[in-house]
Amino acid sequence: MTSPRAPLGRLSLMMFLEYAVWGAWLPVAARFLSAPAESGGLGFSPGQIGMILGVAASAGAILAPFIAGQLADRLMNAERALAGLLLLGGTVNWMLASQTSYSAWLWLSIVYSVLFMPTLALTNSVAFAHVGDAGRDFPRVRVWGTIGWIAASWAFPMIYLQKDLAPQAMPPFLSGTEVEGATARLAEALRFSGLLSLLLGLYCLSLPATPPRRGAAESLAFAKAFALFLRPPLAWLLLAGLAVASIHQIYFLQAGPYLSFIGLKDSEIGPAMTVGQFSEIAIIAGLGLLLARLPFRIVLSLGALAYFVRYWIWSHPDWPISVLVASQVLHGVCYACFFATAYIYVDRSVPRDVRHSAQTVFGIVMLGGGPVIGGQLSGYLAQRFAEPGVPGAEFAPLWSTLSWAGLAVAVLLLAVFRDAPAHGDSSDRP
Fold first, then answer.
1. Domains, the chain, with CATH or none
2. Where are the alpha helices (DSSP H) in 181-318?
3. 300-331: pLDDT as tens digits
4. Are 235 and 362 in contact (CB under 8 A)?
5. Would you state the pLDDT for residue 6?
6. 315-340 burial, b for 16+ CB within 10 Å, e for fewer?
7. Distance between the two ends of the chain, CA-based, in angstroms?
8. pLDDT of residue 312
9. What is the pLDDT of residues 346-371, one digit of tens each?
10. Which residue, 49, 89, 177, 338, has fewest beta-carbon neighbours within 10 Å?
């Protein structure tokens, strides 16, 4: 039986709030954690930040498919599972705002990650269950998630960090005088996110029922899907994806401190990073046309090359701030041409009976393995290139190293990756 369809507006609001919860705190987290205690931050080392925003995040990413699958496929309605996880996660985020020790941050971040990451899959499940035409309607719903991220990244500094707002050229196109102690107030981003999470949790209780899909999963599908990634071309895609996910994670670990170093105010960091989300919307909208004209190998390589150019530009911190911020438009190329394209390729290149499991395997590597490697590598590079008494000395060589990693992935894909024939139905064999 099919579930009754929900108005797209209600599902869009769910997506808006889901990604607003994330976008409210993630862009400014690294800046708050790294800023010296005398400036209002917590003064954690690059290695500690890598553990908090890398390893802790990967714990939730690795467990998310199993938690979401057990809850939504066997135990309870997806909208109720979603509500419970968001209400608990919002409470944990509120608690995090008042913590100052590394151990408290690490363990609470792990707990929060385990609670929040499954909600990303569950919001997709609720949306897919109630849209009329998934190919037509789901993108219309999902785009509101990106808009929610942007809105939260803009709203937080306007509400908590500034006064006397006036028009300006850079996003969010309104800026004012920073309030005293703005760096310390970055902790309020966690409370802001927590409130949004509680609001969304309550809202989810009003969504249409999305009952469990008992018996939907094939018991051996996961093992079968994993075996597919041991052979080319999926093996090459998995290797390239792990490398790209690692350098992508370092962006979130180092962008906040870097943008502060080049001269942006704390209240401008989150909005400046949303330039990437604007381009993401535009590029994903045209991704279907691009894939219709170019092979996957070329589109994936374009995504890796975008990382090369983007990080190469950032390896010149003496360049004009406007150029460094504007280069964020490459984020859309990075994400759409590599991440989104990779997920599409996995979906078309495996038999239908293991597609969900294949996406799970690939997601665990990308969202679980990438943050672990990225977190450790970020700490190593920051400490390796830092010079005593020279603030920001690590940034130029750090971004330069990551740019060459992006170029290496592009060369690898062009040299060895070849598109495989698309699979039609579950009788197909790899």
1. 8-214 (1.20.1250.20), 223-423 (1.20.1250.20)
2. 182-185, 188-204, 221-228, 234-261, 266-273, 275-285, 287-293, 296-314
3. 999 999 999 999 999 999 999 999 999 999 98
4. no
5. 56
6. bebeeeeeebbebbbbbbbbbbbbbb
7. 32
8. 97
9. 878 888 777 767 777 888 888 888 88
10. 177
| Cα-only R_g, the chain | 21
pLDDT digits (tens, 9 = 90+) for 88-100: 999 999 999 999 9
pTM for the structure as a whole: 0.83
Question: Tokens standing for 214?
Answer: 């008992």
Q: Is 281 exposed, middle or buried (0-12, 13-18, 19+ CB in 10 A)?
A: middle
**Spatial CA neighbour of 66 closest among 75, 54, 53:** 75
Q: How far apart are CA 312 and CA 118, in angstroms?
A: 34
Alpha carbons 165 and 181: distance in angstroms, whole number: 17
Which residue type occupies 126? V
- Stated as kind and residue range, the H or E segment containing 403 is helix 395-416
Cα–Cα distance, 144 to 11 (Å, whole number)? 9
CA angle 204/206/208 to nearest 5° reads 95
**Does the pLDDT value for residue 13 go beyond 90?**
yes
Q: Tell me the two tokens of residue 198.
A: 């509680």
Report whether 93 contacts 25 (CB < 8 A). Answer: yes
Rounded to 5°, the CA angle 167-169-170 comes to: 105
Residue 418's pLDDT band (boundaries 50, 70, 90)?
A: confident
What does the CA dihedral 405, 65, 237, 366 come to, rounded to 10 degrees?
0
Q: Which of 270, 252, 269 is nearest to 374 (CA)?
A: 252
